[in-house]
Amino acid sequence: MSMIRENYRLQSDRRQFGGLMMILGFCAIIQPLGGIVSSFGPDGALTTDPSEIPFWGMIAAFCLFTNGVVAVIIGYMSTVHDWSHRYLTAFSVLIIQTAFIPYITDMTAVGKGATASLEEQQFIPSDYEPTETDVKFVGAMGILGIATYGFAFVGAISFMAFCLHAYNTGTPEQRSGAYFEGRMGLYSFILALGGLAQLMLGAYCRVKFDNAVYREGIVHVAMFFVSYPTISMCVGLIQVFTGIWGVFRSVGYHSGPNDYYYQIILTAQWVAVLTLQVVAQIAYAPEGELALAAPTVAAMSLGINLMPAFLDQKMRTLPAQFDANYSALPTHRDVKELSESGSMPSGVTADEVAMPEIPETSVDEEPNMSMNMIAEIEV
User: Fold this and answer.
1) In this predicted model, what pLDDT tens digit does every residue of 224-270 receive, in sequence order?
2) Any stretches that span the bilayer, and where are they (predicted)?
């Protein structure tokens, strides 16, 4: 399905969804890349036994990688070439469900690690003399973190794919402001829940182990790394605050289309996640042993930070319900013909939709025409 010249809004929305799908797809490629590369190394995969979690971790890595490649291709075609097809987006919607496998596998691995003996557990350095309760609590926060970050990330790609599919099947009116408003509340709640997990983990570590810097090793589980407990608490608190704020905005507590304060705060939050949660916390690991985890965590965190901002913008700037003519903006010539024939759609005036006339210029004057005017002349 290619865009005709009149469908400016339709074209703009499709490019928007496609562009975000391409970015998220690239992040999906980055996350499992280390595991895939190691599987093809001289030592091969960690295990080929289907009863072992690492085997399914390898399968899950390929699933996420495949979804990322498909998302990048579909997003690129929609953004750059204004082309997409309902069969292609239907295929994407179908296979994107397999992208949950890596996170389910990770939660299983963390759950198994939380029940390991104190000598075998890998969440808390033994120098801190952790108890079984400590290990289980850290594991629980890790599972909650994977659930929220994973759902937000896969949900973000899936969301863009479903939106593109709706446009490809001729039902763009389903993606009105009311639709985004409902999803805004959901993703904001997920953001708050993910922040709560990090906040509680940081607070627990600060009380149980040390309140300064962990010089004997980092407490780490899933995407959470605690070398400075206070940093974990601060980043988690910011996410809880913005998540709760987003829930309130989803039910109408905002100032309309020009209310950009939430966007600014979410931008600051994302920068804090990259610099504090990812760089500062992981960088303190001795000899850079966890440095390879930084790109994965940064890529995985995009969904949970991006979606509330995106949904908030769409929710505030789109009509609650689309009318039949919303996705197609007629040209000035179309408006003139409709107006003269008395066939203007109900409730629409020529002044509301007409494009500017081409100004008259003398022979000596250089025409000053916009791209829309040039397109009108070419017709």
Assistant:
1) 999 999 999 999 999 999 999 999 999 999 999 999 999 999 999 99
2) 20-41, 53-75, 87-105, 137-164, 185-204, 224-248, 260-284, 290-311
pTM, rounded to two decimals: 0.82
Burial class (CB in 10 A: 0-12, 13-18, 19+), 198: buried
Q: Is 70 exposed, middle or buried (0-12, 13-18, 19+ CB in 10 A)?
A: buried
